[in-house]
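Q: I'm writing up a methods section and want to include an example of the input and output format. Could you take the sequence below and give the corresponding predicted structure tokens, formatted cleanly so I can copy it straight into the document?
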Amino acid sequence: MVETTNTIQCKSLWDESRQNRFLFEKVWDSKKDRLLVISKSAGIDDGVEQTVTQLIITNNLSELGYGGFTLCNLVSDLSGKSKKINSENSKLLSELLKSKDFSGIVICWGSHDKFPDYLKQEAEKVLEAIKKIKKENVFRITDGVTTGFCHPLSPRVRNNFLLAKVQL
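A: Here is the clean output for your methods example:
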């Protein structure tokens, strides 16, 4: 009989009302590289409650040999009803993009061409910020065939995604 024990560290950053989740971090092996993952909208993830998206990201990044990730979203509002971008969230995301804590950035917000205008503008701002700081390891989730940005819930990638470099 073989017994294994794992310690997973999770951290969430919320506003006072817990209506905006700005960050979710999950580390299962601190000796391995971590990624900054940028998705569209925040979920309930807090280390106990988890979304399917976060589980898919965890499983796939673990399979690819990473030791954890920090997830930040374009939209922090859990209700999804806000039609504007939270300035605290934008500021945090900007700081995370400059951080040396990550070996790369994964953009997994799906096709932002179909976003409402306010969200499309935020996605473009993030891409411009990444260009300015000249991050080399910027990835998108792919199945090896898809050429655009994929969301982790996409049936084409959810069970086995690859990371492809993005040229900005």
